[in-house]
Amino acid sequence: MKNITTNKEYQNLIGTISQTYENGRSRALSAVNTELVNTYWEIGQYIVEFEQGGAKKANYGKGLLEQLSKDLSLAHGKGFSRSNLARFRQFYIVYPNCATLSHNLSWSHVVELLKLSDNVEREFYEKQTVLENWSVRELQRQKESGLFLRLSAGKNKQGIIELSKNGQLIEHPADILKDSYIFEFLKIPEPHHISETQLESLLCDNLQSFLLELGRGFTFVGRQYRVTLNNTHYKVDLVFYHRILRCFVLIDLKINEVKHQDIGQMNMYLGYFANEQNIEGDNPPIGIILSKEKDELLVEYATYGMNSQLFVQKYQLYLPNKEELRKELETILHNEESKL
After folding, report:
1. Is residue 191 located within the same domain as residue 95?
2. Which of 33, 185, 291, 293 is within CB 3.0–4.6 Å of 257 for a Cys-Cys bond?
3. In which domain, by residue range, is 70 found?
4. Cα 36 from chain centroid?
């Protein structure tokens, strides 16, 4: 009798059952997560409503959570520490309507969001987590790198509000840019002495983290991508394709200040890709020169009348000072309000 494991239909059966099992398991975990989040929200609601039930109950103050923790822990075991109960309470206060919260967010996601005191900033990270399907670790990293504050730089008040409510919408080339790119995941010790080739290699070795920093829609094409013109070979450091904008994104890395010839070379690369690499349906390529230093005036003059899809942006090897970024954001909002 022929061995059933070699039968093609049997292998198809194995595949179908395995896929069904994984899908069901995923749905079950999602359902459990949704119920868990809803349960914690309801517990927070009961605590707040009890506290607001009159002067007599309000007098319990902090003692209420401590006593609840003792009694609920005796009844149900772990999970009812005073800090957890305080989170449940905060959850209900921050999200008075639990239905507005995406079911794709786990309780661990919610805890990370609750750590943000600014409502606008919290709303952005909530939307972006769902849009980009961030894990909890990825959400933590984006908060640490001050993503919202970096994206807010240069926007007016309305732009900041839209960023908060909708997340980072990508409709135009400039939408993929950050005020500064953060490469702290490379773990380069200070003081750093690194060549452009070493920086490129490290970014490729940490491609998953690099793609997370670049943002949604980037797919890696290659490094040291050869461009040949009249038997002369040039190489683009990094080439990506952006699925949403439907175009190539060329990145050149500079460890020092950008020079005008660097900008001219990138413009040449853009012309080459537009004419030699694009196929039907592709949009014009985008060029980004990432530099540790940026002379704004030089960039302005060097790009005068040039391709509007060529950008010079800064990068940092270490986490930014978020307080300084937050002050810049507050200044933007204050200046907007003072004009009214």
Report:
1. no
2. 293
3. 4-102
4. 25
Q: Is residue 277 part of a domain?
A: yes
pLDDT of residue 1: 47
Query: Which residue, chain included where needed, has tokens 């995923």?
Result: 26
Task: Evaluate whether 317 touches 183 at the Cβ level (below 8 Å).
Answer: yes
Residue 111 lies in a domain: no
Distances (CA, A) of 208 to 105, 185, 197, 300: 21, 10, 19, 33
Token couple for 189: 């010790």
pLDDT of residue 135: 94
| Overall number of domains in the chain | 3
Residue 293 pairs in a beta bridge with: 257
Task: Give buried/exposed letters for 301-315 (b at 16+ CB in 10 A, else e).
Answer: ebbeeebebbbbbeb
pLDDT at 155: 81
| 334 in Cβ contact with 160 (< 8 Å) | no
Instruction: Please check whether residues 167 and 214 belong to one and the same domain.
Output: no
Task: Write the CA distances from 282 to 215, 275, 290, integer angstroms.
Answer: 20, 11, 24
What is the reported pLDDT for 148? 93
pTM: 0.81
Does residue 192 sit in the same domain as residue 297? yes
Query: Does 216 share its domain with 303?
Result: yes
Q: Which residues contact 266 (CB under 8 A, 6 or more apart)?
A: 250, 252, 287, 289, 310
Q: Are residues 130 and 34 in the same domain?
A: no
Check whether residue 150 and residue 206 sit in a common domain: no
pLDDT at 186: 94
Helices (H) and strands (E) in the chain, counts: 14, 6
Out of 102, 131, 155, pick the residue that ends a domain: 102
DSSP letter for each residue of 58-70: HTTTTHHHHHHHH
Listed as ranges, residues in the chain with pLDDT below 70 are 1-2, 5, 54-62, 332-334, 336-340
